[in-house]
Specification:
Order of helices and strands: EHHEEEEHEHEHHEHHEEEHEHEH
Shape: globular
Number of helices: 11
Number of domains: 2
Strand content: 25-35%
Distance between the termini: 44 Å
Radius of gyration: 21 Å
CATH class of the largest domain: Alpha Beta
Number of strands: 13
């Protein structure tokens, strides 16, 4: 293996982005443009690790590295749905070769990453075989999202739950409209409102959200849409990210005073109607209330995986204690 493959950092942004565009699981969240925005918002350093066969990248990982108090971390950036291991398509007539190659590249990348003190990587739904991480004693956790086919909205409408169709019609009758906006401050305020309603702090600070969304919007990676009442009040707002074949609901906010209006359901349905991508990803459905809402719009439940590794047991214990006292 070592005679055939070489792992090295990818310095050529166009080479990396071309690999992302053609790889299994490639998305906007692994591109150099996205990682640079993440680095500026989160004060980290983007790295692009490639497994090369000759001059071709056959597997890789985009991530952010940080170093604090001597502890070096590599991770999927906060507020990024996933980066994860990406693989070039494997030509094969049967599944055995595909599985073997995926395991080979995963093993190479896992061994390479274990030079860091702490690794935390969230993978795309396309990576459905997580066993190499289990075998390497990484912590693994399954998460869920909803994805849907937008190529035929008549078929999708039939899949939308009755309660959600009723909500969409209610918002229409009440006169809510969906508009495009660039108001990042509004998104940040309503992002915080979602958690305030439940008496909890937002998992990401509003300042980080503001910096990240500002950079993503100014670089053309994200656009904001909002549902407004006839009185001009914003009921909900969502930042969408659009790739070549998939659109994503990235960051969302809502005013609880409009929860019963159906405006948020209308916002998503109007977005589906004008979206040019054939597929849509809700980017997570792991909390009961969130999953209940997103399920109503007719998507398929799709698993994806988060993986984590600590180089020493004491570092793992320290992280567990920190999470315990911060929860």
């Amino acid at each position: 293996m070592s005679d055939t493959y070489e792992i090295r950092l990818v310095k050529d942004s166009s080479l990396w982005d071309q690999f992302v565009q053609t790889s299994w699981g490639g998305s906007p969240f692994s591109t150099t443009t996205w990682l640079c925005s993440a680095a500026q918002a989160l004060d980290g350093k983007p790295v692009y690790i490639g497994v090369f066969k000759g001059s071709h990248i056959v597997a890789g990982l985009a991530a952010l590295t940080t170093k604090h108090r001597g502890i070096e971390r590599i991770e999927t950036p906060e507020l990024t749905p996933h980066t994860g291991f990406l693989l070039a398509p494997v030509k094969s007539k049967g599944p055995a070769k595909v599985e073997a190659e995926c395991h080979r590249f995963s093993d190479l990348l896992i061994r390479h990453l274990q030079r860091y003190d702490h690794m935390r990587i969230t993978h795309t739904p396309a990576l459905n075989d997580i066993r190499p991480f289990n075998w390497a004693n990484w912590q693994t956790r399954v998460r869920y999202t909803y994805q849907m086919d937008l190529s035929d909205l008549d078929i999708l409408w039939e899949r939308v739950e009755r309660r959600t169709r009723t909500a969409i019609r209610k918002a229409e009758k009440l006169g809510y409209e969906v508009i495009q906006t660039s108001d990042i401050d509004l998104l940040c305020r309503q992002y915080g409102m979602i958690y305030e309603r439940h008496g909890a702090a937002a998992p990401i600070s509003s300042e980080v959200v503001r910096r990240f969304v500002d950079r993503a919007q100014s670089s053309g990676q994200a656009r904001l849409m909002a549902a407004q009442s006839p009185q001009g009040e914003t009921a909900s707002i969502v930042a969408f990210v659009e790739g070549p074949s998939m659109a994503y609901a990235w960051v969302a906010g809502a005013d609880p005073q409009h929860n019963s209006s159906g405006a948020t359901s209308l916002l998503y349905w109007r977005y589906f109607q004008q979206c040019t991508q054939p597929r849509f990803d809700f980017v997570g459905a792991n909390l009961p209330a969130v999953a209940f809402f997103k399920r109503g719009l007719g998507g398929d439940l799709v698993p994806y995986y988060a993986t984590e590794y600590f180089c020493t047991p004491w570092l793992r214990r320290a992280a567990s204690l920190k999470r315990l006292f911060s929860s």
